[in-house]
Amino acid sequence: MDPRLLFEERTARVELEIGPGRGWFMVERLTVEPAISMIGLEIRRKWATVVDERLKSRGLGARGRVFAEDARFALPRFHDGSLAVVYLHFPDPWWKKRHEKRLVFTPALVADIARVLAPGGELFLQTDVQERAESYERMVAADPWLVPWAGSARVEENPYGALSPRERRALQDGLPVTRMRWRRAEAPR
Fold this sequence. Notes:
This protein is an alpha/beta fold. It has six helices and eight strands; from the N terminus they run E-H-E-H-E-H-E-H-E-H-E-E-H-E. Strand 2 (about 35-40), helix 2 and strand 3 (about 65-70) form a beta-alpha-beta unit.
């Protein structure tokens, strides 16, 4: 599937947010960057519907869509190199061993993300849990197609002009947020 065909307004850059929740990052991102289109994959049907309607009601529906889909099953249907950026904000709030099956960010998902990113495309991931940040960094480092942005995956600031609700809350509460950014290489390392 070519994700550009999902939109009335065809833009060159399509970005994807995995797990947009209530969608405020998408609303903000589409507002500050009129040259992009965005897809949200939200596993909860209720929130996918609410956010898709929210985008339409704000005049962003021609460039933004949210689908009730599990990214682990949707990404394999995307064309290779069809996305400019993939965002994951504070994924995997599952702490117990028995909940491991619910984890979203896995080596398999990393491989799918690397495949669907265009050369030079970006993966942006943030968390406020240091051990998860270290785990995510190791997972992505194992993928031959993804390389750290500017020599280090960790970045101080969110460069996208939009904040996720959890990011806003963490900043208000004074929690440290680990932001990581990778780009897809032209060839595997």
